[in-house]
Amino acid sequence: MKWICTTLCGCAALGAVSADASAAGTVTVDRPCYSKGDAIVETGTGFTPGAPITESLTLTVPPAPDVLGQLFTLPVIADAAGNFQRGLNTPDLARPTDRREVATAAFTDTLSAEPPTATQWTLSDWDFSAAPLGRITARTKFALETWGWTTAGEKLYIHHFRGGVRMASAEVGALAQPCGDLAATLNLFPPRARPGRWRIYFSATPALDRKNDAWFSFRVRLKKRRGAARTSAAAPLIERHAGASGKR
User: Fold this and answer.
1) Most C-beta atoms within 10 A of its C-beta, which of 116, 139, 227, 235?
2) pTM of the full structure
3) For residue range 147-180, what is the model confidence (pLDDT) as tens digits?
């Protein structure tokens, strides 16, 4: 199911609905953090049997009170026991420049006088940055930071390709939950790297499938002669692939 979106820049008056102990029903989600491409599974219990349950979602960046965006979905009908379960696509961040936003979902039982019940989760971007530490040589190190690997895997791996051929793969480290983040410093090239044009990939899989896996990559050239001018250490151009899951 998709969201109906309205952007509400600076609409602090709308606020975010807080959970109320007297509210009718409760709703839980299957994960604490989502990024684009993930499916959100909502499970509701304790509502009026057969009642249409409406949902509105507000996106904020605490502690700022402003509502950056508000979204709605079509109502879901509670079953004979007052329960429901459905899946939703993850919405986009209200502001593309945000790394994280807090999503507050308010559920209203349209056949009850009780106030809405609310649940919160984190909406994360999925992105990657890399910066070589010095000019490019066989011994250069680089710093990377990545976030939003919510469902692709538990660890990040680096894959070195030279001339289109895989030369080496290695584990970088564990992706910190709940949003799948990692910051690390590591060698730009594998041991005994030969001069040439290299492409370096990062995925959550130990063996890279460039067609089906979600990955980031960048290209770098290792010069042949020691006396040759070294390649500038400017931040590389990052390429990305959503993979079969449509991660991004």
Assistant:
1) 116
2) 0.85
3) 999 998 999 999 999 999 999 999 999 999 999 9
Q: Please state, in angstroms and rounded to a whole number, the distance separating the CA atoms of residues 101 and 99.
A: 7
**By the 8 A CB rule, do 36 and 89 touch?**
no
CA angle 238, 239, 240 (to 5 degrees): 125
Tokens of 230: 């070294």
- From the list 210, 156, 231, 220, the residue with the least C-alpha distance to 188 is 220
CA angle, residues 39, 239, 40, in degrees to nearest 5: 5
Domains of the chain: 4-124 (2.60.40.1930), 127-241 (2.60.40)
172 in Cβ contact with 156 (< 8 Å): yes
Cα–Cα dist 175/152, whole Å: 10
Instruction: Give the whole-angstrom CA distance, residue 76 versus residue 85.
Output: 9
